[in-house]
């Protein structure tokens, strides 16, 4: 399958998510939301770089821009990668139940379907680290974008975890499932960090 959902307009992508089709669905939508969170980190960095007021942070913000752009680009790729991983899983579910190879095919396809949402979580965690730093080093004129970015990242991180857990729940290999679940739980700790940033942004905006 050679889907390129991110080459479509935002309106077309949203329409395809809404349609009665298996892809794109939740996983692709989550990757896109995560990409937008990273994009907001990038715009804050772009409007901070070169400003005399933030000259002391110039090198740091340049580094943060490189990081957020790498995350954004990776998450955009994951929009399609998640959709592509669903096809083998869908095909495995279509194998007759009496077929002796069905369970092995399902197990393999299910493990494959875990890869994209788990990678999304890793990338989103990176974006939260960037946004944390931009709360201090980014332009005050764009502090609301820092807050918006962390809120989007929080939602995307939790949603990606759901897309992992729905698959680990059905695995026969419980040792593998437990290891994946443990990594997800560790990555979910970034939710608290992101929420602390968004709460601080709101406090500053309402002060």
List keywords for this structure.
207 residues, mainly alpha, Four Helix Bundle (Hemerythrin (Met), subunit A), 7 helices
Structural features, described:
It is a single chain. 77% of the residues lie in helices and 0% in strands. It has 207 residues and is mainly α. It has a single domain (23-206), classed as Four Helix Bundle (Hemerythrin (Met), subunit A) (Up-down Bundle), CATH 1.20.120.
**Strand runs, count:** 0
Helix content estimate = over 70%
Beta-strand percentage? Answer: under 5%
Please report the distance between the alpha carbons of the first and last residues: 52 Å
- Structural Rg: 19 Å
CATH classification, class level: Mainly Alpha
The number of domains is 1
User: Can you tell me the residue ranges where pLDDT is under 50 for at least 5 consecutive residues?
Assistant: none
CATH architecture: Up-down Bundle
The tally of helices reads 7
- Average pLDDT works out at 94
According to CATH, the fold-level topology is Four Helix Bundle (Hemerythrin (Met), subunit A)
| CATH homologous superfamily classification | Formiminotetrahydrofolate cyclodeaminase monomer, up-and-down helical bundle
Structural class: mainly alpha
Order of helices and strands: HHHHHHH
